[in-house]
Amino acid sequence: MIAVIQRVSESSVKVDGKTIGQIGKGLMVLLGIEDSDTQEDIDWLSKKIVNLRIFPDENEVMNRSLLDSGGDVLLISQFTLHASTKKGNRPSYIRAAKPDFAIPMYEKFILAIEAELGKKIETGEFGADMKVSLVNDGPVTIIIDSKNKM
Q: pTM (2 decimals)?
């Protein structure tokens, strides 16, 4: 699993012109799933995301986590995170999981983040043409690949 995590002051996602997910302060997370992902990847990555110390403390030092700051999460599935650009100019998405595997993994990831955070999160719509808006706070953007734990 690959996650692109952005600290935001606000973020939203629209499908067919209708807002389906929206948050204020928190994290907007793009999530890419591949066939080799397991429950272990879900557990590790969800813990890592909610505990990342990327929110400012009283001294403006990035020393607080999402849990500490009380922020929210907007989670968006994005298969293009697994794009391979090694050959030619047209990306290959062969590593990206097909929907029959990716959808249940995405749903499990939602539940894992909610359990870690102790509250519901906002999401996009898997497979939809989504319009994502955000105000990156900082800017702070972190990329984590669960296959690179060590």
A: 0.94
